[in-house]
């Protein structure tokens, strides 16, 4: 099992790092008491439901003996055969003071009459044992949240992780409102509406008769090729972003016929080329698509 221990100065971005690892497929536990680290590592690697990748956040909030953590990690490596790596996040005092001022959060060591700079200095001293054994030390003083997420995912990336975001095709109806989670949106209301065909109006874009009706419409194949060409050209750029999903929304009037069929056609095409694809038909109740499985 691979275990990443995430630590660092309060306000340096540990929560962002944990969330980035969780989005990359790690089983994450934050603010774990250090004396439970060895037991957790053994359970996760050898228990009834073992995991292959996990991340644990440890910092001064645990009020534990942090100087003992390196020995615990060494024991896990030898006894439980866990591959342990440590990530430590740093930041300048100036940036930390600014962040605490902006968020108005209280530093965990500001007790009594201790000032914020004094609390930061005390925390650095307590976390020194973890900083010394860290495999990666990141200075987040000048990093945005999005840049930090990308740096974390780059550091821990495997071949599976570098495949990029899950491609989600979503159908919807304009009369029900635009889907706010769209990254790209296509309007295919130029196609004839099956809702005005008596034998098709009660069906959906998942039914064979509607699919055949739409596939016979002039211009559909060329528009599909245009969308495929655009997505194929833009996908490499999106893979460089630290996102879990790329949502491509396809809209028609009611979200029942045309958009459903086109979303399915696109999913079928990219399933052959990209592998795992997700489809969502927002305004079609009880829909079932062959491409609905999410990436594990």
Domain unit count: 2
Largest sheet, in brief, is: 5 strands, parallel
Shape: elongated
Strand line-up of the largest beta sheet: 2-3-1-4-5
Helix content: 25-40%
| SS-derived structural category | alpha/beta
Span between termini: 17 Å
Strand content: 15-25%
So, the CATH homologous superfamily of the largest domain?
A: P-loop containing nucleotide triphosphate hydrolases
Q: Could you say what the CATH topology of the largest domain is called? A: Rossmann fold
Oligomer: single chain
CATH architecture of the largest domain: 3-Layer(aba) Sandwich
- Spatial extent as radius of gyration: 25 Å
Quantity of strands, as a count: 9
Q: Topology as H/E string?
A: EHEHEHEHHEHEEHHEHE
- Count of separate DSSP helical elements: 9
CATH class of the largest domain: Alpha Beta
Flag low-confidence runs.
none
Can you tell me about this structure?
The protein has 296 residues and is of the alpha/beta class. The protein folds into 2 domains: 2-161, P-loop containing nucleotide triphosphate hydrolases (Rossmann fold, 3-Layer(aba) Sandwich), CATH 3.40.50; 164-281, no CATH class. The chain has 9 helices and 9 strands. The strands form 2 sheets. Strands 2-3-1-4-5 form a 5-stranded parallel β-sheet, with helices on both faces. Helix 1 crosses helix 6 (145-155) and helix 2 runs parallel beside helix 3. The longest helix is centred in the C-terminal third of the chain and has 20 residues, at 220-239.
